[in-house]
């Protein structure tokens, strides 16, 4: 596992050399994004707004209108909750070229639902550090507002090299005809672990990285659903409005199929550590494997 701060900073240093319009706006999250190191090399390309999330998002609009490509960084909860009006009405309604990069704690569960509901906003979640680089490159090349959801620790076990990320595409990492598992973020690595366990039990599983939550390739999702007996979604997010919502919406309109959503329930985080929170909602490898086994028993 890699700290997202170091990975984000390394990529940003490369971008600052490559793109003259690349700038970073930061709200009280310099440590989370390792921006002190970035500022050593590019002091005129990073701007700190303290706790002024709304002011920062307003300034980002000005940078965008002036031809820059601002990457706005902060804690996802603060950015979205404090800056929602600016995000929706200033940035997305005007379709400005602003990239919102929010770090989430593993128990935060509503940011995807909020952001994918805003017109013009694209939503991305990297599965590992290699995909993060390709994803940020695509964000620079693709015009318009984008929300990049970042977990504090990123896997390095999904891809062996930098993949060719494309907006709207789904990446099939393994093929199988019994179950198709759609996953995002660090849950992609967990899904691959589940696939290895159940393959030895004779269960054939397709694992799909849904790193582009919005837009999505509905045709490819439908074809994957058609090729399996049932489907599972795995996410460290509420099942309401997240990945489970995305796949269920497509299935309801295009190809009705049994779908098991594995994610957070309709509840607030009530303390404790991340492991106990994931245990509560069945987001451990063996928990997921057992749920898939139970689904297959119905079909066999």
Q: Could you give me the name of the CATH homologous superfamily of the largest domain?
A: Thiamin diphosphate (ThDP)-binding fold, Pyr/PP domains
The number of strands is 14
Indicate the CATH class of the largest domain.
Alpha Beta
Spans with pLDDT under 50 lasting ≥5 residues?
Answer: none
Strand content: 15-25%
Radius of gyration: 19 Å
**CATH architecture heading of the largest domain:** 3-Layer(aba) Sandwich
Q: How many strands, what sense, and barrel or not for the largest sheet? A: 7 strands, mixed
CATH names the topology of the largest domain as: Rossmann fold
The tally of domains stands at: 2
Secondary-structure element series: EHEHHEHEHEHEHEEEEHEEHEHEHH
CA-to-CA gap between the ends?
A: 37 Å
* Spatial strand arrangement across the major sheet: 3-2-4-5-7-6-12
Mean pLDDT: 94
The shape, in one word, is elongated
Structural class: alpha/beta
Keywords:
seven-stranded mixed beta sheet, alpha/beta, Rossmann fold, five-stranded mixed beta sheet, 44% helix, 2 domains, 14 strands, 300 residues
Task: Describe the structure in your own words.
By secondary structure, the chain is an alpha/beta fold. The protein has two domains: 2-154, 3-Layer(aba) Sandwich (Rossmann fold); 171-299, 3-Layer(aba) Sandwich (Rossmann fold), CATH 3.40.50.920. Helix content is 44%, strand content 22%. Strands 3-2-4-5-7-6-12 form a seven-stranded mixed β-sheet, with helices on both faces. The chain has a five-stranded mixed β-sheet with strand order 9-11-10-13-14, sandwiched between helices. Strands 1-8 form a two-stranded antiparallel sheet. α1 (4-18) runs parallel beside α3. It is elongated. The two termini are 37 Å apart. The model has no long low-confidence stretch (mean pLDDT 94).
């Amino acid at each position: 596992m890699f700290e997202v701060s170091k990975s984000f900073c390394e990529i940003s240093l490369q971008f600052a050399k490559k793109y003259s319009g690349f700038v970073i706006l930061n709200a009280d999250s310099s440590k989370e994004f390792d921006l002190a190191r970035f500022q050593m090399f590019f002091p005129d390309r990073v701007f700190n707004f303290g706790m002024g999330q709304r002011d920062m998002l307003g300034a980002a609009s000005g940078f965008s209108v002036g031809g820059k490509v601002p990457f706005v960084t902060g804690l996802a909860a603060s950015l979205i909750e404090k800056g929602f009006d600016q995000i929706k009405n200033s940035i997305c309604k005007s379709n400005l070229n602003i990239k919102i990069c929010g770090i989430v704690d593993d128990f935060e569960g509503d940011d995807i639902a909020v952001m994918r509901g805003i017109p013009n906003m694209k939503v991305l979640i990297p599965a590992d550090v290699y995909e993060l680089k390709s994803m940020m490159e695509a964000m620079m090349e693709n015009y318009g507002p984008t929300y990049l959801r970042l977990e504090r620790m990123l896997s390095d076990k999904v891809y062996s090299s930098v993949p060719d990320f494309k907006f709207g595409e789904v990446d099939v990492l393994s093929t199988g005809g019994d179950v198709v598992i759609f996953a995002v973020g660090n849950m992609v690595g967990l899904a691959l672990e589940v696939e290895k366990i159940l393959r030895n039990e004779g269960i054939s599983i397709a694992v799909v990285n849904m790193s582009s939550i919005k837009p999505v390739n509905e045709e490819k999702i439908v074809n994957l659903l058609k090729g399996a007996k049932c489907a599972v979604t795995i996410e460290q997010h509420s099942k309401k409005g997240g990945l489970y919502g995305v796949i269920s919406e497509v299935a309801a309109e295009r190809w009705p199929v049994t779908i098991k959503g594995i994610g957070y329930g309709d509840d607030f985080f009530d303390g404790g550590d991340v492991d106990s929170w994931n245990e509560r909602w069945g987001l451990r490898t063996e928990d997921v494997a057992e749920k898939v086994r139970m689904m297959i028993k119905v079909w066999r």
